[in-house]
């Protein structure tokens, strides 16, 4: 390996060709003869340019297309299969998924406090590409999404209600309730604290540690080591040159599967909530037909943005969405129980840290419904999303030290999520305690709109909520297509747009197949089934990160 980037001029040229800048200052470039895209198949059938990694694209696309066809042709059987896979994972692998997530958090904290935290992404002299304000804003954008819209009211309410209801036991002696830990039967204050702690647990340090592991791996091996910006690159310390063969192909294929099903879960959830909102506001009938039309229409908008090349337009749309989300959050804070939200933010954080050791315990859990039905689903969902979010974070974090990077990635989005959940959850719980039963009795996608109905300007804020979900859908689909296309194009970030269109269509098709087949349960089952194999990839990646950082020069 060479310690100075100027010793490898063709690496510099290779990096420029694919849009990944060469390291600035001292860095430990990996000396490989592999050229990005050398195994790609390039052609222009019927005038449509394609530039794909033959093995990764062919295997991924054929398996996914077969899944979509079979799911639509045999919805009952496919739903049963995913349900059986989820049940098996819940019954046998919950300890593994929960334990893996704990490892990710601990590794991030260790890297922050050790000398490895001094390594700079992009080389010893690299300067950040974005200001702190711009960088934090993009981390905020990555942290916000359809999930917060869907679960911002429903999850705190669910955990509060089950905690208040206490423990129930079946004939076999096993718990049948869904309350976290030991519940808080009949105690409204304790139930609220436990419910908010459980919610923050699912949206705090653990998910962002998962994203940080992937993002840091991609950033170090691309910007410091000169390898392609694709998941296989972080396995170079373990596999060496074999990452360009089938071992690397398998890693990238798993990343494609995980990302597609993670995206499809989010898109399906978003479609359910948008449909529920339209039905709530305008009496538009719900059902599968509406969901299919909604997903098809929004996917078409995302495809138009891909074809038109309106990246700046999508960026502006995302910025507008962030502003709308911020305004909606501020509205709920100032129109809702403001003092309770302000004090609850710190109280909920305290409850979260107090309950964290027990909520994250992977062994001997009695609250199986909660730990398996909620936490296992969330961790698998975050893991399946990690290539998507990780690549985005990696691309905007060049020039930051590892310590700075991890501190910001863990704390900034987590803090925003805590504030969001506190504002929406506290407002909903207080409305319920005051006697309003609409939120408690509503289906999950409708709970947000029931909560907003008790505040001023309900029709306007509900419409804003629908717009937020739809735009999150469009930008997630567009960005997700780019990430998947990068992986299936052998690490190229400037592959032809028709390939992104293909993956955009596939994302929508998977969401439709899962929703038609089994609704929310099928979406959750797919996310869990896709997240498990990629958990193994991330655990191996933990070793690769340490190995990669160890060889990098560190600031004095």
Describe the model.
- The longest helix is centred in the C-terminal third of the chain and has 54 residues, at 497-550.
- A hairpin with a 6-residue loop joins strand 1 (40-43) and strand 2 (50-53).
- The chain contains 18 helices and 2 strands.
- 72% of the residues lie in helices and 1% in strands.
- Mean pLDDT is 86; it is low at 1-18.
Order of helices and strands: HEEHHHHHHHHHHHHHHHHH
Q: Care to count the β-strands? A: 2
Distance between the termini: 22 Å
The fraction of residues assigned to DSSP E strands is under 5%
Radius of gyration: 23 Å
| Average of the residue pLDDT scores | 86
Proportion in helices? over 70%
Largest sheet data:
2 strands, antiparallel
Order the strands across the largest sheet as they lie in space. Answer: 1-2
Structural class: mainly alpha
Low-confidence stretches: 1-18
**Total count of helical runs of at least 4 residues:** 18
Shape: globular
């Amino acid at each position: 390996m060479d310690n100075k980037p100027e010793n490898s001029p063709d690496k510099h040229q290779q990096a420029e060709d694919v849009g990944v800048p060469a390291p600035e200052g001292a860095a430990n470039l990996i000396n490989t003869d592999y050229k990005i895209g050398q195994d790609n198949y390039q052609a222009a059938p019927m005038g449509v340019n394609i530039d794909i990694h033959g093995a990764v694209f062919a295997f991924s696309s054929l398996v996914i297309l077969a899944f979509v066809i079979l799911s639509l042709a045999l919805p009952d059987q496919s739903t049963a299969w995913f349900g059986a896979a989820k049940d098996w994972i819940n019954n046998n692998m919950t300890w593994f998924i929960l334990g893996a997530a704990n490892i990710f958090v601990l590794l991030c904290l260790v890297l922050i406090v050790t000398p490895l935290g001094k390594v700079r992404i992009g080389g010893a002299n690299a300067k950040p590409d974005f200001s702190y304000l711009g960088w934090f804003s993009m981390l905020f954008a990555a942290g916000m999404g359809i999930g917060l819209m869907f679960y911002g009211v429903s999850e705190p309410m669910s955990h509060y209600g089950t905690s208040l209801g206490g423990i129930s036991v079946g004939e076999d002696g096993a718990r049948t309730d869904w309350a976290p830990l030991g519940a808080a039967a009949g105690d409204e204050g304790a139930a609220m604290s436990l419910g908010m702690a459980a919610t923050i647990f699912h949206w705090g340090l653990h998910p962002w540690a998962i994203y940080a592991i992937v993002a840091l791996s991609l950033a170090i091996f691309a910007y410091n080591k000169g390898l392609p910006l694709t998941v296989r690159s972080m396995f170079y310390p373990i596999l060496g040159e074999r990452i360009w063969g089938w071992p690397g192909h398998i890693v990238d294929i798993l990343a494609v599967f995980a990302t597609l099903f993670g995206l499809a879960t989010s898109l399906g959830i978003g479609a359910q909530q948008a449909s529920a909102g339209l039905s709530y506001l305008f009496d538009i009938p719900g059902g599968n037909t509406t969901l299919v039309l909604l997903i098809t229409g929004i996917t078409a908008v995302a495809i138009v943005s891909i074809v038109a090349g309106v990246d700046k337009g999508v960026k502006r749309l995302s910025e507008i969405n962030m502003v709308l989300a911020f305004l909606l959050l501020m509205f709920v804070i100032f129109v809702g129980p403001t003092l309770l939200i302000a004090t609850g933010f710190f109280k909920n954080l305290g409850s979260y840290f107090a309950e964290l050791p027990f909520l994250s315990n992977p062994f001997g859990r009695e609250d199986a419904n909660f730990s398996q039905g909620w936490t296992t689903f969330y961790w698998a969902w975050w893991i399946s999303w990690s290539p998507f979010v990780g690549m985005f974070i990696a691309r905007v974090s060049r020039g930051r030290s590892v310590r700075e990077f991890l501190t910001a990635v863990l704390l900034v989005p987590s803090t925003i999520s805590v504030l969001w959940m506190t504002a929406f959850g506290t407002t909903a719980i207080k409305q319920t305690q005051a006697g309003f039963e609409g939120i408690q009795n509503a289906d999950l996608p409708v709970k947000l709109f029931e909560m907003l109905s008790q505040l001023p300007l309900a029709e306007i804020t509900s419409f804003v909520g629908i717009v937020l979900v739809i735009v999150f859908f469009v930008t997630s689909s567009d960005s997700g297509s780019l990430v998947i296309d990068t992986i299936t194009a052998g690490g190229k970030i400037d592959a032809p747009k028709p390939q992104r269109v293909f993956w955009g269509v596939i994302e929508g098709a998977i969401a439709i197949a899962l929703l038609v087949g089994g609704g929310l349960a099928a979406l959750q089952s797919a996310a869990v089934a896709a997240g498990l194999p990629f958990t193994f990839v991330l655990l191996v990646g933990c070793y690769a990160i340490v190995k990669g950082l160890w060889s990098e020069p560190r600031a004095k």
